[in-house]
Amino acid sequence: MLEHHQLPNFEQAVLPHLDAAYNLARWLTRDERDAQDVVQESFLRAFRFFPGFRGGDARAWLMRIVRNTCYTWLHANRPLQDATEFDENLFPPDSHAPNPEEAVLQNDSAALLRMALEKIPPVYREVLILRELEGMSYKEIAHITGMPAGTVMSSLSRARGHLRQVLRTLMNVDTMPSSLANRRCERMSASA
Fold first, then answer.
1. pTM for the complete prediction?
2. What is the pLDDT of residues 103-140, one digit of tens each?
């Protein structure tokens, strides 16, 4: 087991990231109680394997554990959930790239944004949450997800596109005011 002098190191390195861990688990499981269970299991695993932690970014290390625990939990408890792929025929790419996120934020419709985030595929939701809500770098997200950094960037681009299309569909709006095409969902954390 762990020696007494290692406990404060765990507490100092890992416990400050409890909110970020819960946030990721909440968005992946889409349920508060399930997220609490996943975070509890994740912290038990982190505690158990902390002696093997070689230093570095404790937040990224913990988030990877949370991510893996979430997917293990989802596979065991909801094996058929999210089995369908995103159908690009239902949501074709839009050539004028309207920005529904801005309209949602201007209308103060955080609930609509949450609903749209829940409708995009988990792999895209995951990278959006890690980047936009948790403010993690591409390198950190790559470490957490096991994707190459280039794949993280393309996944984020696709995730933002899917989010725009889902918002457009949910809002049932044909034309939206245009804005910067590459604008991040920078205010998601304030609305979500």
1. 0.62
2. 445 555 677 778 888 888 888 999 998 998 889 999 99
Place of tokens 């792999």: 123
Crossing angle of helices 110-119 and 149-171, rounded to 10°: 120
Instruction: State the Cα–Cα distance between residues 84 and 166, nearest whole angstrom.
Output: 15
Give, in order, the Cα–Cα distances in Å from 48 to each of 2, 36, 37, 71, 101.
Answer: 8, 18, 17, 19, 41
**Intra-chain end-to-end CA distance of the chain, in Å:** 40
Q: How far lies 166's CA from each of 6, 66, 144, in Å? A: 47, 27, 26
CB neighbour list of residue 26: distance below 8 Å, 6 or more residues apart? 32, 35
